[in-house]
Design brief:
Order of helices and strands: HEEHHHHHHHHHH
Shape: elongated
Structural class: mainly alpha
CATH superfamily of the largest domain: Voltage-gated potassium channels. Chain C
CATH class of the largest domain: Mainly Alpha
CATH topology of the largest domain: Four Helix Bundle (Hemerythrin (Met), subunit A)
CATH architecture of the largest domain: Up-down Bundle
Radius of gyration: 25 Å
Helix content: 55-70%
Length: about 190
Amino acid sequence: MVFSTAGITYSFGAVRAEKRHSAFSNKPRNARILLETEEGWQFQDQVLQVRSPTRQWLIRFVNDPWFPTFGAFMVFLNLIAMCFRRYDSTPAELKRIDYAEVAFTLYFLLEIGIRIAGHRSWGQFWKKKSNVFDLFLAITTTVLLLPQIHHWDWFRYLTVFQVMRSYRMIPAIPGVRDLMVMMSVCA
């Protein structure tokens, strides 16, 4: 009977994983086991860390598929609210639009805070470029709420940071999301 090298290696690996010691000795080892998880490779003791029920709920909440979809919907509503600003708007209309922009900015700041807290580790948050970009946009648009900045001549050009959030709507389109997943697997 012919055994392949892969089969033998797999068998020894299975014995070693079951008994937590070498297949050739009975002496236990204090080795850490490396597991492949959805976040990448992690040691078993890191994966099985006991977290508070609130933290576990928060992690499930952020990783739920509807969470980014709801965020994209809020971006869509924000863009609609921004469209109501016109050159001939009354001061009362402008004040309502400003209140809406403040509410959306505070929502996105709260959302990024929840996303930070909802990741299994701090390093995991920084792995996604969209998280870093959203944090940048949340901080920048929050700074734009300062009344002193509203008086600058070039303030209207800074609203581009609010419009830049619209990139979040692209992955919310089902066909585009599938295409992006397929492209990331091929890369």
